[in-house]
Amino acid sequence: MSDEATSLVDLPSPILVEIFSRLPPTTVLCVKSVSKFFLNLTFESEFSKLVHSRSPASIIINQSHSTRTRSRTNTLKFLKFIIDTDQGTHEICHDPNSDLDLQPYFPIGSFSLVGSVHGFVCFNYFSNGADAIYILNPRTREYTMVPEAEGVRGYPDLVNYGFGFDPVKFEYKVVRIYQEEICDKINGSRYYKSECQVYTIGKGYWRSAGHVMFCFGCRAYGVNLYGKIHWLVYDVNRNDLICSLDLGNELFISFPSAPGHSEENHPNLRSLGVFGRCLCVCDNNADDYIEVWVMKEYGVTSSWVKEIVINIIPECNDWVCNEMIYLLKVLDDGVVLFLWREDFLFLHHPVKKTLKMFDVFEGYFLASSHVSSSFSLKTFEAEVVNVF
Prior knowledge:
By secondary structure, the protein is mostly beta strands. It has two domains: 1-54, Up-down Bundle (Monooxygenase), CATH 1.20.1280; 55-387, Neuraminidase (6 Propeller), CATH 2.120.10. Helices cover 9% and strands 47% of the residues. The protein is built from five helices and 26 strands. Strand 5 (110-117) and strand 6 form a beta hairpin. The longest helix has 9 residues, at 45-53. The protein is globular. 29% of the residues are buried. The model has no long low-confidence stretch (mean pLDDT 85).
């Protein structure tokens, strides 16, 4: 045996990929800067597969109200799915022992789930003039409170948020869209001026990314995909668009939303989501069916495809129509999980054309796809990290 020490680069590529897949994102960033060889290994599909396989995707639930006790709650719950491919059945597994009661540690009030990335969960607390952002890792029970941004949130001004990850710089960012209502003193017309504010986890301060010429309104929080955060917006002509902020260069682009929207759709019951690795729009404006449009080629308007049409049978009419519906996840066998308003989950089977309601929790809740991780917030030096 040679006495010469073996360098890390002498190891076979599959072993290096296995090692790198077990590292936290901040350490992977350092690894990528060592050499072009290491950088290319982190771009391999096997690296991504290993990272995700170690923490199977689940659904995180933020329950904000209990109908049983008729009181506010602030509880995190975690769902996993068991699929029996032979029987074609699906079961939602919820272990109450894994629930996290946040009320003793966080303010009681409007505590809303913004999104989840790599095990980090972003919450917005808005109540009595406060407009705070918390970043939490449920597995490590660590959290940090982001400093408040400029621009007081209060009627008639509006705020929208997004939470995402820049895969090039390995940075996690919170995006705040502050919409200030402006009154034209000459003609009395009113319009919103939107400013984009960005907070990079670990930097300790907000920055302005300039003004945005869209109306975000009170729609749902932004959708994270491909290193960009996406929102459904209107332009000055009331056209329905999708705008996205690139988390790398912090520039906005926009492109037309899915077909089907018209001014007659009021309220506009459309929501933005992710179908596999594609943007999708869930449209519940019709009285007797739901449509899911999928953008097969990112940013290409002609690639919108009507992927799913759910015909509403009479017995489902009372709990499906006339409310906002959110697409949460496409399961491995193609079955799709939806959230109806803030009340319950339901599954759609694309082959059997069936709907199945899962009345798992009583009360109101928000939900997001979630991959648990042990990444520590303490790796971000500028953040004051607490443990609950």
